[in-house]
Design brief:
Blueprint (H helix, E strand, L loop, with lengths): L3 H8 L9 H10 L3 E13 L12 E9 L16 H9 L3 E4 L6 E8 L9 E11 L5 H8 L1 H12 L14 H6 L2 H12 L4
Antiparallel strand pairs: 1-2, 1-5, 3-4, 4-5
Length: 197
């Protein structure tokens, strides 16, 4: 398990054993389209219920910020309740790839499990990475990195009576392809094919 994303985990003293198998695969596949990590924020999650799910008492705190977002204020620093996208990530336990709500930065958020025996499989950290994408990636590497999202996009497009072509993915900048939901991506492709854009 080598590469830019696994190096980012190691630099925070986090290990592969603290990731779910599904998330390890996501990170491996994503590495082919990521150019660099420009900044990171490590958060600690506390106060999950006995099932490891967020409750009204669940909190989030910034442990350390690095790189280009080191001096950018985080909402968490003034309101430590776990809410919004980060709450969804903790509830679902999946790697999140998208765009920051306020600044439109391309981000990846990796849920990291605790090493404690008292709550195995409980998410203790979120590692947020500000990423930049490789601009000259092959269609194959983008499809691989999209994972299940690729099928989701494809199915929505096909539901609109459009014969799927992988080349449709070339209609979007890579930041948009990974930064927008499958629904928004598919809607854009459908609009282009119908001559609406």
């Amino acid at each position: 398990m080598e590469g830019i994303l696994f190096d980012a985990l190691s630099s925070e003293n986090l290990t592969i054993s603290q990731l779910t198998n599904v998330n390890i695969i996501v990170l491996k596949n994503m590495q082919g389209v990521i150019e660099q990590i420009e900044g990171s924020t490590l958060y600690r999650i506390d106060g999950l219920n006995v099932l490891g799910e967020p409750s009204e008492d669940t909190t989030i705190e910034v442990i350390i910020k690095r790189g280009d977002i080191a001096n950018v204020p985080s909402r968490v620093e003034t309101d430590n309740r776990l809410k919004g996208t980060k709450r969804i990530i903790v509830r679902q336990g999946n790697v999140y790839i998208g765009k920051g709500r306020k600044d439109e930065r391309s981000i990846m958020v990796i849920p990291v499990l605790t090493t404690s025996d008292t709550g195995p499989n409980r998410i203790e950290y979120l590692l947020l990475l500000h990423i930049s994408f490789r601009q000259n990636t092959t269609l194959e590497s983008r499809i691989k990195a999209l994972g299940g999202k690729y099928e989701h996009i494809k199915n929505i497009v096909q539901e609109n009576s459009i014969a799927w072509q992988d080349s449709f993915l070339d209609l979007l900048d890579i930041e948009e392809l990974f930064g927008r939901s499958a629904e928004k991506t598919a809607d854009f492709i459908v609009s282009r094919q119908n001559g609406e854009i």
